[in-house]
Amino acid sequence: MKETIQLILKGMSMGVAEVIPGVSGGTLAFITGIYERLLSCINAFNPSLIVTYKKEGFKGVWTQVDGFFLIKLLLGMAIGFLIGLKIIVGLLASHPVHIWSFFFGLIIASAPLIARQVNKWRWLEVFCLLVGFVLVYWITIAAPSQGSDHLVIVFFSGILGVSALLLPGLSGSFVLLLLGMYTIIMPAIQRFTQHPFGPELWIVLIFGLGMIVGLFTFSKVLGYTFKKYPNPTLALLTGFLLGSLNKVWPWQQVLSMRINSKGEEVIQFSQSVLPQTFDNLSSNPIYGTNPYLFESMGLMVLAVVLIFILDKFSPSS
């Protein structure tokens, strides 16, 4: 029962993360210690399931895909997604500095806990850490490109988008935004839900196909590297987390806005600034100019405490 509650809560954290642009569900899976198990579940969905079904029936298939783990996790993700839509999205609009402070604390507390899982730090692990940090940091400051509705580009956008979801520190929606595909894919999906056989059908189908290909191929790559090269892989993913801190830094100066698929004006691009600089801005859409320094620091500390409590009572600790 205790493990069930823990899995549902971890799934909820992932579900909430998927609602928030800039935060990856993979990050929360990594933070809560279920990342490798989740990769194993995804990789279990392969043609060998047919053989398993013929030999052992549904029970064998259920065991191979770690069915109880997936059900509990997916239930938690569904609950978290709904909570995120109803509560977190609203709080991000009304209290962005506070919410990002909390997420900043979550990530900065998690990085050393994950780094300690590296059994031996050599030059290769240090190199992987730096590569992961530089890559994700560069992504957070890169300017968005122009997208295209060409089906080949749509297909590869699906691969890259879902691959980013699997990587801690990377947000699939943010990667689509950088590719210039966010304003193409999201409106197409929205119109598809209203008119399933409209002109957007092929865009949605090809994007979905790209996501499926990316999900299963990239999860296999990650699963392989975890087994063969656990220390460099953990070091690389730790670098991803550290590089993402720039994206979740609470004090952002908004540089440009865009209209989302719902016709709402949202942030397209921003840059991290010091609280003092933030306080001196003449105007700053969405974020405002009040740094809420005391409250922000308190939320960061709360997030750090929560991570260490999770680590202390984790079954794997």
Characterization of this structure:
- The chain is mainly alpha-helical.
- It has 2 domains: 1-116 and 291-317, no CATH class; 122-247, no CATH class.
- The chain has 14 helices and 2 strands.
- The protein has helices spanning 2-19, 25-31, 35-44, 48-64, 67-94, 96-115, 123-141, 151-166, 172-178, 182-194, 201-228, 230-244, 275-279, 293-312; strands at 252-259, 265-272.
- The chain has a two-stranded antiparallel sheet.
- A hairpin with a 5-residue loop joins strand 1 (252-259) and strand 2.
- The longest helix has 28 residues, at 67-94.
How many structural domains? 2
Number of strand elements: 2
Physical arrangement of strands within the biggest beta sheet: 1-2
What share of residues are in beta strands? 5-15%
Figure out the total of helices.
14
Run of helices and strands: HHHHHHHHHHHHEEHH
Q: Please compute the radius of gyration using only Cα atoms.
A: 20 Å
Helix content: over 70%
Largest sheet, in brief, is: 2 strands, antiparallel
Distance between the termini: 18 Å
Mean of residue pLDDT values: 84
Question: Runs with pLDDT <50, length 5+?
Answer: none
| Structural class computed from helices and strand pairing | mainly alpha
Shape summary? globular
